[in-house]
Amino acid sequence: MWLFVDSHPYAPSDLHSIGIRRLTGALQFSKLKLNGFKSFVDPTDLVIADGLTGVVGPNGCGKSNLLEALRWVMGETRAKAMRGGGMEDVIFAGTASRPARNFAEVVLTIDNTDRLAPPGFNDQDTLEIVRRITRDAGSAYKANGKDVRAKDVQMLFADASTGAHSPALVRQGQISELINAKPKNRRRVLEEAAGISGLYQRRHEAELKLKGTEANLARVEDVIEQLASQLAQLARQARQAARYRTIGDDLRKAEGLLLYRRWKEADEAQAKTQAELTDRTKLAAQAEGGGTNLDQNPRSGRGEIATPA
Questions:
Q1: Secondary structure E strands in 79-206
Q2: Which residues contact 94 (CB under 8 A, 6 or more apart)?
Q3: With 70 as the cut, is the pLDDT of residue 38 above it?
Q4: In terms of residue numbers, what domain contains 210?
Q5: Could you give the CA distance from residue 258 to residue 177 in angstroms, rounded to a whole number?
Q6: Does 280 map to a domain?
Q7: Which of these, 165, 40, 25, 151, lies nearest to 90 by C-alpha position?
Q8: b/e string for 182-217 if b means 16 or more Cβ within 10 A?
Q9: Do 170 and 232 have their domain in common?
Q10: What is the pLDDT of residue 28?
Q11: pTM for the full predicted model
Q12: Residue 14 has pLDDT above 70, yes or no
């Protein structure tokens, strides 16, 4: 756990201060580097040593920007928490003597010698979290040089019982707010002290996934009903197609039998006609043969003609 106090109560009246204290048995922050973040236009390193590290200075020197830089690199997504109208307001806007920057970058170095980092980030002695924002391009995160999601960084610190919304980051006036806070808000402080805030974060993520799964199941049921209706329609069309195919086969068979019967009847009629033609041809030939014989024998029958004396 960390204790990060903005506006230390023991600072002189004309000065204000912030205090950072490293607590044993927790994730150990060792350095905070800012480049182009708000008033820190030049690369600036804040080394966080064992015990209590204090930064003292007058109003407007950028003490609160250190607290905001720590929140920002741990995954803060609310521009209002950065005292700006948009997240790009954290980029140095320029002055009369210094031009504006196109990007802002904060690097948080974590001493992981004791291997207290959550799984997935616990393979090296030093863990370096980088958040960089570029104008018109948005934010990008890296962990030890590898691109990661904002959600991964947020879960990293949640599992370590800290984060951008951690009660351990105490801003000016927050002590009185905690004293007058509702039991639910005090419970967050106790949960973080017990080291179970990451479990609640994961439970929240699991609940969101569960709700998404339930919504998907409801959608699947709607799709199943729609597909069942389409299936019934397709089954009816399939039965109609099968019936059409059966009727078509029967119709082709009937047409084939009809054509065969007509051909058979025509063939029989042709054979009968051919037989009749043959018989009549024979009769005609016989008739012609009888007439020829009568002409060749004039003496026979009534064909004789008497010659006058």
A1: 103-111, 126-134, 138-143, 146-148, 169-170
A2: 100, 101
A3: yes
A4: 199-259
A5: 102
A6: no
A7: 40
A8: eeeeeebeebbeeeebbeebeeeeeeeeeeeeeeee
A9: no
A10: 83
A11: 0.59
A12: no
